[in-house]
Amino acid sequence: MEKIASFTIDHIKLQPGVYVSRKDTVGAEVITTFDLRMTSPNEEPVMNTAEVHTIEHLGATFLRNHPQYQDKTIYFGPMGCRTGFYLLLAGDLSSSDIVPLMTEMYEFIRDFEGQVPGADPKDCGNYLDMNLGMAKYLAKKYLDEVLYCIDESRLVYPQ
C-alpha cells in the first residue's frame, strides 16, 4: 500500500506550527485540512486525553459559533498521536490565512471560564475526561511560543 500524505512528513524536523496538510476537492468546493501542531513530535511529551478533549470541545464550540467561519467549518478534532489537531475548512486557504482565526480561538480557550460546553453526560460520551486548567495552559503555550511570533518556518512543512 502507498503511504498516505500525512505519513510522508518528516516528524523529526516538524515543529509546532500551522500547516496545510492537504487540499481536497468535493464537488466544486476545495476543503483545506490544517495540521495545528501544538507539540514537537517525538521530542516533547504528548498532550493527555483530558486536555485534548477539553480543547476539542472549546475549539469546536468557538469555530461553530464564529461569525465568519461557522459555515466553513467542516471538522475540528485531535490527532491520534496527541501532538495537535486537524481543522478542515471549506475554501482554498493557506496557513497564513487562518493565523488570526487560530490566535482568536486559542485566546478563547486560554481565557475560558466556567463549565466546558458539552461536558455533561447527556451531551458527551466521556464528559468526565476534561482538564480545563491544562487546556488553558497549553493554549497559552501555543499562543506564546507559536502563534504570536509565527514565521514561514512554522507555516510550511519542513523538507
Structural class determined from secondary elements: alpha+beta
Shape: globular
Order of helices and strands: EEHEEHH
Main pleated sheet: 4 strands, antiparallel
The number of helices is 3
Strand content: 15-25%
How many beta-strand runs? Answer: 4
What multimeric state do the chains show?
single chain
Average pLDDT number:
96
Give the fraction of residues assigned to helices: 25-40%
Spatial arrangement of strands, main beta sheet: 1-2-4-3
Distance between the termini: 23 Å
- In the predicted model, the low-confidence regions spanning at least 5 consecutive residues are none
C-alpha-based Rg, rounded: 15 Å
Summarize the structure.
With about 160 residues, the chain is an alpha+beta fold. It has three helices and four strands, in the order E-E-H-E-E-H-H. Helix 2 packs antiparallel against helix 3 (about 130-145).
Give your account of this protein's structure:
It is a single chain. The protein is about 30% helix and about 20% strand. It has about 160 residues and is an alpha+beta fold. The longest helix is centred in the middle third of the chain and has 17 residues, at about 50-65. It is globular, with a radius of gyration of 15 Å. Strand 1 and strand 2 (about 30-35) form a beta hairpin. It is built from three helices and four strands, in the order ββαββαα. Strands 1-2-4-3 form a four-stranded antiparallel beta sheet, with helices on one face.
